[in-house]
Amino acid sequence: xxxxxxxxxxxxxxxxxxxxxxxxxxxxxxxxxxxxxxxxxxxxxxxxxxxxxxxxxxxxxxxxxxxxxxxxxxxxxxxxxxxxxxxxxxxxxxxxxxxxxxxxxxxxxxxxxxxxxxxxxxxxxxxxxxxxxxxxxxxxxxxxxxxxxxxxxxxxxxxxxxxxxxxxxxxxxxxxxxxxxxxxxxxxxxxxxxxxxxxxxxxxxxxxxxxxxxxxxxxxxxxxxxxxxxxxxxxxxxxxxxxxxxxxxxxxxxxxxx
Length: 258
What we know:
mainly alpha; three-stranded antiparallel β-sheet; globular
């Protein structure tokens, strides 16, 4: 019988080996209600322990990093340990006290590295930019909105820490990050460094304008554009721009789309 009581109801027959398995966050999490006793009695409940041991996290990261395409040996380079070192540095800050690191975050960082190395970034550059797209570009939103004035300074400190990690690992030099990336439109591509998107326009004017009244060269707009292009490199992950009304979020996206 269908829920609405229609005379004709669709009948589905499950495969003999079919199992229904659901997942949920704990009851009471962000206003979620507990399951009713009647529903609980129909399920075999299992509590999943969180993965908090550093050794577990390192193994997960190392397993998913594509060292073969990097040209490095897992035995000689352990990015998983470096990621945890950065996490520990991050957690000592006021921002870190308001943040949480999940396995999903580490895998996002790993995925970014795997993808962008194939698109022209060095391994060291991909590592640094991956930290930004995963942890640092989000600063100023949510629980860190009250620390907005401190965001720029903290990002710079984190950048220096990440860069020094890669210099110590001999994956980058200081010169690799000195130049401000230039936005270019060339050969059917638009973007900078390894952060390109397909573009069919043949307009190569110096101001890289998306509209007659919009320029990508102004410092703040340029910085926001780099963040968007960087985030676009992550396949199958949507992007959300957050900012005060009137700062140009929609205008930037409109100009980029044109």
